[in-house]
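Our consortium's second objective concerns turning raw sequence data into structural hypotheses that experimental partners can test. To show how far this objective has progressed, the report includes one record in full. It was chosen at random from the queue rather than selected for favorable results. The single chain below, 143 residues long, was entered without modification.
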Amino acid sequence: MKVFKSKFGYEIMFFITVIFVPILGLIIYLGEPMSEILFVLAVFLAVYTFFLYLNWTTTYTITDGGVLKVKCGGLFNQLIDIQKIKSVSKTRNLISSPAPSLDRIQLTYSKYDIIIISPEDKNDFAKELLKVNPKIENRLNRQ
């Protein structure tokens, strides 16, 4: 069994900060009541903490039984038979997925299914998948 951690999503954390900090600064500048400032701060901290949690708890496990376990916090758990995976490729798709980072790969499996993930070491991850199923088409190094 081999566990791959997700790449940390600095881009998403930065985006959250870029949205909330100016809003917080604006309401402070406008002299809004302390209750509103604390409310916005509480929302920011809750959102920030939630995304930190997802970054730290998202894992991709290749089991000895040939199953890929995708876990994203307590929100998302999926099992994929590695023998059904057809290809691994880079993607810039921003669709919601168990991939906290925007540096993502797409796995195509079964007939029409895809999953987008973001392992720290994409090439090592693909090599481990290929050990289980050598028929997987590895498109990671294509341009």
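The partners drew two points from this record. The beta strands are 2-5, 59-62, 67-72, 76-81, 85-91, 104-109, 113-117, 137-138. Residues 10 and 101 are 7 Å apart (CA to CA). Both points have been shared with the crystallography group to help prioritize constructs.
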